[in-house]
């Protein structure tokens, strides 16, 4: 009897360890936001962003399309919009901007609009007053554009920050190069109420 209960205890212990290592570190958008079924995310990029910047942004959005059994596509429309004031730009179009938001603001910011829990528009702002880099080896003080953009696109999709350091949805410091999705990001994606 004693041996049996010991074994049972060990079994439960290993189950708990297994559970915590899988850990649900991702967080969904607190408002439960998700895109309407069958509606993909098509975005334009501001004409003020360099061709190199466009390549970085497309590389980032493409990461979310690498998910097997993906339920949603992110597509660059090829358009270079001339908008430069995203604050006044709730217009039903998904746009990536680059404006000076000041050094106290994050290097990038996602903004989205809901109708109920359906996300109807998602814009991203790159902050030109922060040190942004398209180089695959950014300096320690620079923000790697593909890495910060894959994170912002994650917000657009309906994910909040993750506690898992391997996730692109983790808030990483300057100098970090991490644009390939982690397991946790994919788990978060699959947990969205598409
Ligand atoms: Zn974030």
Automatic annotation (TrEMBL):
One of its GO terms (molecular function) is metalloendopeptidase activity. SUPFAM superfamilies: Metalloproteases ('zincins'), catalytic domain. The keyword Hydrolase applies. One of its GO terms (cellular component) is extracellular matrix. Residues 31-191 form the Peptidase metallopeptidase domain. SMART domains: ZnMc. It holds the Pfam family Peptidase_M10. It comes from the Bacteria. This is Peptidase metallopeptidase domain-containing protein. It comes from Brevibacillus parabrevis. The lineage of its organism: Bacteria, Bacillati, Bacillota, Bacilli, Bacillales.
């Amino acid at each position: 009897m004693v041996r049996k209960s010991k074994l049972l205890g060990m079994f439960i212990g290993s189950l708990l360890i297994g559970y915590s290592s899988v850990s649900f570190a991702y967080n969904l958008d607190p408002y439960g936001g998700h895109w309407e079924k069958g509606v993909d995310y098509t975005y334009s990029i501001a004409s003020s962003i360099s061709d190199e910047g466009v390549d970085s942004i497309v590389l980032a959005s493409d990461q979310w399309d690498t998910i097997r059994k993906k339920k949603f596509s992110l597509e660059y429309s090829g358009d270079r919009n001339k908008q430069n004031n995203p604050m006044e730009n709730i217009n039903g179009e998904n746009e990536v901007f680059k404006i000076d938001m000041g050094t106290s603001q994050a290097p990038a910011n996602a903004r989205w609009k809901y109708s109920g829990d359906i996300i109807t528009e998602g814009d991203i702002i790159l902050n030109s007053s922060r040190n942004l880099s398209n180089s695959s080896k950014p300096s320690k003080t620079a923000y790697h554009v593909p890495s910060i953009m894959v994170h912002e696109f994650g917000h657009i999709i309906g994910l909040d920050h993750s506690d898992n350091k391997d996730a692109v949805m983790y808030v990483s410091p300057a100098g970090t190069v991490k644009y390939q999705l982690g397991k946790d990001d994919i788990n978060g994606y699959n947990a969205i109420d598409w």
